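Exam review. A common question shows you a sequence with its structure tokens and asks you to describe the fold in words. Practice with the pair below. Do the first one on your own.
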Amino acid sequence: MPIDPYIVLLLATVGLAALLPARGTGADVASGASTAAIAFLFFLYGARLSTHEALAGLRHWRLHATVLACTFVVFPVLGLVARGLVPVLLTHPLYQGLLFLTLVPSTIQSSIAFTSIARGNVPAAICAGSFSSLVGIVVTPLLAAALLGNSGGGFSADSLVKIVLQLLVPFLAGQVLRRWIGGFVARHKKVLGLVDRGSILLVVYTAFSEGMTQGIWHQVSPVRLAGLLGVEAVLLAVMLALTWYGSRALGFGREDRIAIQFAGSKKSLASGLPMASVLFGGHASLAVLPLMLFHQMQLMVCAVIAKRRAHDPRTTPRPSAAHVVQGEPQHRVLR
């Protein structure tokens, strides 16, 4: 099973923050740089998202509505149900991080990759991930305000203003300027991808440094971490089953079911980490720990599922609204 190299870098960054946390003036500089990095990240997200492609993807409205419902309704409901595990398996801070995990958008890159491997509906996976990320910029903070409130470790109504200024405004600016910079962004995709990941590493270092200086990590024990991993494994298993069998009950064909399963069962580390930094401030380190663990778990499990789906026998899919709207014949045999 794959180990995401980026997770290794994230863990190394956490280790660096534990050994050499930013303090005093260094902490102020790191915090300012982290804020600027977050704004730049979402500016790039806006510059990359093609408005034309997003509008064209609305033809798959049933599929996208299903993915959004899984991401922003079913996941949070399961997160609320997990409240009953406090304090038996989870501490309250770890539960807050777990609940936040259920509120963030779906992934884009890994959903597309696994859908492609499994011979699913790749264009639908692209649009579903993009829509989820776009909706999450607004919906995730609103859900956090409703479900976490001030118990989230510093979250308040002021955080909504920070979200607008640090996330939504840069994203909209990227969309507006895409007409002029879209080509440049596309040509330098790899370089800007490194900037993306470097920015997130800076966010992680800043968050975990604050956690170290405030002694937050003394609240976590190996037993609690094991409990968290067990809860997340159950959460992932439930969502994988719901997205697969639920989409079949809704009448989707095999290709669409694959896209729904991989887009509807995942959570985005790239979007969640910056949002947690804005929403939780000095308590962001514990808030993002469940998300980091879930991210690696979902990659490992979905890689296995995608490979198994790729070897499924060729079958005639059940008719789905997405195929009909695209003008694809309903009897088409999957390749």
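Now try the second one, then compare your answer with the model answer below.
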Amino acid sequence: MNATSPEAAPGRIVLLTTSHRVAPGLLSWPAWQVLRAADAVLCADGAHPQLPYLREAGISVAEASPTAQELVDACAGGRTVVVVATGEGEPALTDGLARLAGSGRARMPELELLPASYDLPGARLLDLVQVMDRIRAECPWSSRQTHEGLAKYGIEEAYELVEAIEAGDREELREELGDVLLQVVFHSRIAEEDPDAPFSIDDVAGGIVAKLIHRHPHVFGEEKAETPEDVKEHWLRTKAEEKQRTSVTEGVPLGQPGLALTAKLAARVRTANLDVPPPHGEGIGYELLALAVRAEADGVDPEAALRAAARVYRDAIKETEERGRSGAENGR
């Protein structure tokens, strides 16, 4: 028997990986081709979610956990063996194959890693929903939380997100976005338990998807928008139709910081082409209102501008304190 005969061919090992975030049975066409052409299909996990669908498709799957040497021997004669990987990815098997290949004692089959299903963008959100569901059920603190009890955390996380944006810290920004996302998922999980009007994270996501599509007719419809102002006009008009509001001030939360509130009202007035000058009055409140309106007209966020100035003020305070401490130490 020569080295090129079929009996001497080392064969092929295909490690087939799948994503638990994709419905079982939804495999790529190359994966189905490999599975149908394989001489043997093995899986160490008899409860693997893919197995019922593979068997329904007429593919015989043996429940087995071969060693690296056993798997290499099974490929002798040019055979192709597919290993349907478990959730852990078969690290013991792949490590064993690597050691066997490094030893030089065996003629190794062709090794191939074939992803049979891929995560779509946003797939990790499914993990977050699952983790939140378990925490809600098993954590003594999380299981007792209410919308009202969590409200303060939503405010805190929103401010921390803004701070990360203004600081330009990318790592902090990613983390704070996750904290804000957690608030959405947490509240949605609590809402599932409401006896009268329950809703889920899917209802929340479905609602915002429908809203975005409806308020972007220039993207999903036939209307045109050439400028950001055109987009705002579409947005306000469709929003007014949805809410059946009689005033542009409706929907503006009065509990937000004063400068942000004033700027929001001024933006609504400007976008709606209303001629409503800021009211005149005595006191610092009216002066601040006029400044906020002017800032909004100039395209400046007065709240962000004041925070930036406040940070400079904070730094000046700290420098003064440091000079005071240094002077006191030098005077001793």
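Model answer, second protein: The mean pLDDT is 89. The first helix runs from residue 29 to 37. Full marks require stating both points clearly.
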